From TrEMBL:
<protein>
    <submittedName>
        <fullName>JMJD8 protein</fullName>
    </submittedName>
</protein>
<dbReference type="Pfam" id="PF13621">
    <property type="entry name" value="Cupin_8"/>
</dbReference>
<dbReference type="GO" id="GO:0005634">
    <property type="term" value="C:nucleus"/>
</dbReference>
<dbReference type="InterPro" id="IPR003347">
    <property type="entry name" value="JmjC_dom"/>
</dbReference>
<dbReference type="InterPro" id="IPR050910">
    <property type="entry name" value="JMJD6_ArgDemeth/LysHydrox"/>
</dbReference>
<dbReference type="GO" id="GO:0000987">
    <property type="term" value="F:cis-regulatory region sequence-specific DNA binding"/>
</dbReference>
<dbReference type="InterPro" id="IPR041667">
    <property type="entry name" value="Cupin_8"/>
</dbReference>
<feature type="domain" description="JmjC">
    <location>
        <begin position="99"/>
        <end position="233"/>
    </location>
</feature>
Length: 233
């Protein structure tokens, strides 16, 4: 099943382009609903530094901290980045629990990875009283993080495709916290009545998703993917 996961039949997340102003972002999306932004940043220079060859050359010997791909990320494992890329970066096993699936996202050493992050151009939209923090990730096809929530943020796909599922804070989704998103998609999603389906859409390189505070969301990488999030804490 891994590596052959389809995109959604219809994207149900609203889209906006570079004509969206900061005041309209605050008025229409910041506190109420997600939006996919296209053309609001140019990260071609950052993308050029995120190829497999460039990342291995710059960071191959350095340790990265992997998290388990479940809602609470119980376990952390430190491995050299090269070992993660060459041995652990593989398609998701549909039968494996989230607690047994290791995934590189967040937990970045800002000092060591700083030169890379400095080349990233985040969306200019801000929410008063918050400050941004980056979370960088690389993951295999079929991998992802099951439903969880936290503060608001942006997430941009650098390489690959990433499918998102979102519910508002007052609509808790049906899921098991230790079930991978891939398993949820095959077991639970097909039986959901239309009224209980999440908002969903697949992000492609250069697209940025904004999600408001406390919105439930789960992710599923349709390809081997590189992505970066800007959390507004």
């Amino acid at each position: 099943l891994a590596g052959t996961v389809p995109e959604e039949e219809r994207c149900t997340v609203e889209r906006a382009d570079a004509s969206l102003t900061s005041s309209l972002f605050l008025q229409r999306f910041a506190f109420s609903r997600p939006v996919i932004l296209r053309g609001v940043t140019d990260n071609s220079a950052f993308r050029a530094l995120c190829t497999r060859e460039k990342l291995l050359a710059a960071f191959g010997a350095r340790p990265v901290r992997l998290s388990t791909a479940n809602t609470y990320s119980y376990r952390k494992v430190d491995v050299p980045f090269q070992e993660y890329v060459e041995k652990l970066l593989e398609p998701q096993d549909p039968a494996r629990l989230g607690s047994d699936t290791l995934y590189f996202f967040g937990d970045n050493n800002v000092t060591e990875w700083g030169p890379l992050f400095q080349r990233y151009v985040p969306p200019t939209f801000r929410i008063p009283g918050t400050s941004p923090a980056y979370s960088f990730g690389i993951a295999g096809s079929g991998s992802g993080v099951p439903f969880h929530w936290h503060g608001p943020g942006f997430s941009e796909v650098i390489f690959g495709r990433k499918r998102w599922f979102l519910y508002p804070p007052d609509k808790t989704p049906h899921f098991h916290p230790n079930e991978t998103t891939l398993a949820w998609l095959h077991r639970t999603y097909p039986a959901l009545p239309p009224a209980e389906r999440p908002l969903e859409c697949t992000l492609r390189p250069g697209e940025v998703l904004y999600f408001p505070d406390r919105w439930w969301h789960a992710t599923l990488n349709l390809d081997t993917s590189v992505f970066i999030s800007t959390f507004l804490g």
